[in-house]
Write the structure tokens for this entry.
Amino acid sequence: MGRRWTERADEAWRWGREHRHRLADVFCAVGSYPFVVLGALTGVSGGVGLAGLGMGLIDDSAVIGLFLVVQVGLNMPGLVALSVLVRRRRPVWLMAAALAMLLLFGNPAPAAFALYSHAVWSPDRRRLVSWSGAYSGVLVVTYTGDYLAAVVFSLTFTIVLPMVLGLWVGTRRQLVENLRERAERLEREQNLKAESAIAAERTRIAREMHDVVAHRVSLMVLHAGGLEVSAEDERTVETAGLIRTTGREALAELREILGVLRDAPGDAAPTAPQPVLSDLAKLVNDSRAAGMAVDWRTTGSPRPLPAQVERTAYRVVQESLTNAAKHAPGADVEVRVDYGARELEAVVVSVPPPERVADEQAPSSGYGLAGLRERLTLVGGTLTAGPLADGAWQVRAIVPVGPAQRVGALRNADGDGESA
């Protein structure tokens, strides 16, 4: 309960912060209306201003006098209050209404507030000087019969002080806005520098990968090619050819990754498609050609899925087959891809030979499995990996494929897989 009230209070504070100027205008308009009415009635009853002079001329008619009091003493302050609401967008309206109040009733309060508002919110200084001269002339004519001290006092507190205070507040507000704009510009420049540093780091990583990984893989491909040519055993030739083909594919994929990482001007982004579920047939056939016993099944209702989802499932199967070949040679591997109504499930189970169950430990999860978990997290899925009761090792990935994802699919599947 307390937390809900705190959230509502925070929302109210943010709303008030965003609309503080509008709320201030409403407060000033409503709060000033009674005082402007009181000043107008005082001016009429005291014979100050044109309305006061008019009342002195028609004091024999009480009906006409009451009508003038209601129309002039109540409606004119209402116009002043309405002009206060738009004083930031239409400062001339408030200046004109204040001048009318000063002429009709000799009330200087609206004039002082109008000069202050104009000095704060309007950059037109010439218009401010013109209105100040008009107010000064009306004040001198209105109080011409009074003492000089009264005239000086009226000019000081009605014209000079509000205008000086408004100019100071307006200048300070502009200074704060300029400082805020400068801070935002510096923040944008800092973000650009950070992006530039990130791009430079990506280029450095791409260069390091090219110098180290690509060089080693190229040497492996060359040696495999030489072995394929010079070997006499048929099995050795076949294995060397498979190593050479796999190395070339790895180099092609590495080249695509380097193209993404590099930020060289004029370089085009790689356009080769990334592997998806329709490429599982080639992956399984390559594993079988390497001597692995792979049983592949596709169940459920195969359908087009978002490319990111299919790439993630493909990488799960690829990494699982690689781990099985590395840590459990000779194992029987079962690959199952199930298209559910709301989720895609990819399961890879490797069963080591009986003579290796007791002697060899199950494959341990290393950086490959950690990378798979990160991939699954990006698409909102989960990954579990671990030994089963019979000594087999299972990798199971579940990726949600709700209606929204199916609608957003970016491509059509090239194939549905096979059953072996």
User: Anything to note?
Assistant: Confidence is low (pLDDT under 50) at residues 357-365, 404-420. Residues 14-145 form one domain. The CA atoms of residues 297 and 336 lie 5 Å apart. The longest strand covers residues 343-351.
